[in-house]
């Protein structure tokens, strides 16, 4: 019952005891399409430059290790994880996780991604503010994204109070804030990566341009995710702000 009603609220606006067409829903659809396009773009770009071997012939793991050493960082472990584009840096245990398609690959795409994740490790070592804030915010944002709709739907079911709806919107706002803070973190990591790859001589000539294309495509997925989250939040405020006025 709750799940069905939640779907109806997502598709239509709600006032009092009736549903009506939500004109803002088209914006959510557009943002979802943009997010899908961004995902397809990053995968196609990565696959394209995964076929281009770097002239230096170093693997993603080797590049990550040497970049860390060049910055005086010796307490970050590099591990291999399964999957494709599942690469990440975990600041909690200082682990740089490289996927199967990056760890042992000598491609331009793999080196770009490995350097990007190394950029996060460098941010952590240097106390980069937005990364520290994002790390602290993550638990709240994770809970917020999971329970926000449950609270909103429960608020509609019980109907006698707006408190649950208000809390739900507030919890969702934390998830939106997380997406916004992610943007400077990701762009800065890519900028650090490209600068180090060139200055340390891991990529040459067109290889730098190709690596930049891979990282730029990946960055657009974060932009699309942030745009989708913002539009969804505005839609919630639009729907339930009107409900209060009534």
From TrEMBL:
<feature type="transmembrane region" description="Helical">
    <location>
        <begin position="136"/>
        <end position="157"/>
    </location>
</feature>
<feature type="transmembrane region" description="Helical">
    <location>
        <begin position="219"/>
        <end position="240"/>
    </location>
</feature>
<dbReference type="Pfam" id="PF04298">
    <property type="entry name" value="Zn_peptidase_2"/>
</dbReference>
<keyword id="KW-0472">Membrane</keyword>
<keyword id="KW-0812">Transmembrane</keyword>
<dbReference type="InterPro" id="IPR007395">
    <property type="entry name" value="Zn_peptidase_2"/>
</dbReference>
<keyword id="KW-1133">Transmembrane helix</keyword>
<feature type="transmembrane region" description="Helical">
    <location>
        <begin position="163"/>
        <end position="185"/>
    </location>
</feature>
<feature type="transmembrane region" description="Helical">
    <location>
        <begin position="20"/>
        <end position="38"/>
    </location>
</feature>
<protein>
    <recommendedName>
        <fullName>Peptidase</fullName>
    </recommendedName>
</protein>
